[in-house]
Every structure is written in C-alpha cells, then in structure tokens.
Amino acid sequence: MNTFGLIQIGTILLCTSITSCPQCNHLPLQRRKVVKNSMQLLDKMGEKFPRQCLREKMFFRFPKQVLKPRQKETVKVAIEEIFQHIFYIFSKNLTLAAWDKTALGQFQNGLYQQIEQLESCVIKKQTRYFWNKEANRLKLKKYFKEIDCFLKDKQYSLCSWEISRAEVRRCLQLVDKVIRKLNN
Length: 184
Prior knowledge:
There is one protein chain. With 184 residues, the chain is mostly helical. The chain is 74% helix and 0% strand. It contains seven helices and no strands. The radius of gyration is 19 Å and the shape is globular. The relative contact order is 0.18.
C-alpha cells in the first residue's frame, strides 16, 4: 500500500474517533435517560402487581459489588452486560404476559439501542479488564440465570413474568443510582 493510501486510512480513523468520542462522553446522561425511560415502560407494560402473585413472591439477590468497582469503565461494561441480560430475558416466551405490546416493544428497542451504543464505546482493553474480574461476571450471570430459571420453572406464567418485571425494575433502579454517581 502506498503512503497516500495510509494517510487516507489514518484520516478516516481519526475522524471516526473524533466523531464517536463526543457521543461516548455523553453516554452517562443518555444512559440515565434510557434507564428512567425503561423503568417507565416497565410500569406502563403492565398494571399494578397482581394480588394473586403475592404468594409466589421470589427473592433474587442482585450482586451489587459488580457496580462498585473503582474504575468507571468497568462499571460501564457491567451496565452493558446487565442490559444484555435484561434484553435476553424480555425477548422470549412472553405469550402469557398480559402486557401492553407497544410499551414492551419500546422497552426492547431502547435496551437494544443502548447495548449498541455501549458496545461501540467500550474499548477492548476495558472489556478485558472486566472479564478478568471473572467472579463479578459470574455473579451477574448467576443472578440473571436465577430469573431465567424461575420463569422456566413457572412455565412463563403471568405471575412469574410479573415477579421478573418487578425484579428488573429494582435492578434498573440500582443501575440508575450508579449512573448518577458516575455523573458526579
């Protein structure tokens, strides 16, 4: 390849990084809006928690330590993974969930868009740092696996979906709290 071709490629890469960096710098504010919007959509998807589901209450323990690392970038990667798990759970077997389909679609689309933005902003080096913290990653995976297994065990019943929806809302509240701290 000639020198002119290398200069062109370098210029393109420089321009790409310059244009993508401001977007990534505004992500905490955007994420906070997405999380708030997601919580509103979760509320809008269904009505109040059904009384018949109160006796089926399940307790899931969110691994809060995954959102407490010392490096902001590690928290960003953890939040991306949380969004991916939530998207996965809310993308399957929703037939018995008596929810507003429009709000559900908006919820799924918002999560997907946020995952896409986060993936483009999280550098491989930062991702490796998080994955090196295997214990944190596994705790997060276990938490969402418990929700997924609960849904399967209850055959994706209305109550299992309502309990899972309430749990995801609590999870998003924790993420929102962490994002507010990152902004300060």
